Amino acid sequence: MHDATGQYYDTHAEQLAARYRVADVTPLHILLRRWLPASGSVLEIGCGIGRESAFMSAFGLDVLATDASEPMLAQARLAPGNERVTFQPAAFPLRPGHPLLQARFDSVVAIAVLMHVPDHELFDLAFQIRGLLNPGGRFICSFCSGRTPSEEDPRLYAAREPGEVRLLFERLGFTFLKKEENKDGLGRGTRWTTLVFSYLWRNRLATGGVAI
Fold first, then answer.
1. Is the separation of the CB atoms in 110 and 48 below 8 Å?
2. Which neighbouring-strand residues pair with 106?
3. Strand ranges (DSSP E) for 128-190?
4. Per-residue pLDDT tens digits for 84-112
5. Closest to 101 (Cα-Cα) out of 111, 109, 89, 93
6. Could you tell me which CATH number the domain at 3-207 has?
7. Which residue of 41, 58, 164, 200 has the fewest CB atoms within a 10 Å radius of its CB?
8. What sign does the dihedral 105-110-113-114 (CA atoms) show?
9. Is the pLDDT reported for residue 211 higher than 60?
10. What are the CA-CA distances from residue 9 to residues 25, 180, 211 (Å)?
């Protein structure tokens, strides 16, 4: 993660948790309920205050929630409904050899994450997400536009065009399923884009014996 972004979350975790808990995320949760399976395992990258991990756990998913910020993970553990969620510190993209790279999930979710990922790390993140998914797995991501860093908030807000994000994952073999745009849940002048993908491993024989 971008250094200033991680430091900001570390030092403002309690303040951010209080703010984010009152956000209206109804459209996001409707989308998650529609596109995630009714059961199975899900990896959440950048779980923040644990709001989505609690929601996904409530409808039967086995959730591993990760975040690069230990203070944010502490806030997530306090969220009601997260008693069954497993939490683990992890900064994506993961370093080579990280044990989590050997795990496989039915779904991967990254809410409000991609705009915090530097350009030079975005492909590595997408490639790792592909490797973390079981055949037929779903990937759901959301990211914002219309925000820029400031002296008060130095977090990275990379300009992520939905078409460019879609093209990146399609070139890695993902199938695009859904795009949805929503207003900011806190009433700020920010637009949120959510993209849904699936990933079907290709037949080994069709790819010269290499699973893609």
1. no
2. none
3. 133-145, 174-183
4. 999 999 999 999 999 999 999 999 999 99
5. 93
6. 3.40.50.150
7. 164
8. positive
9. no
10. 20, 27, 38
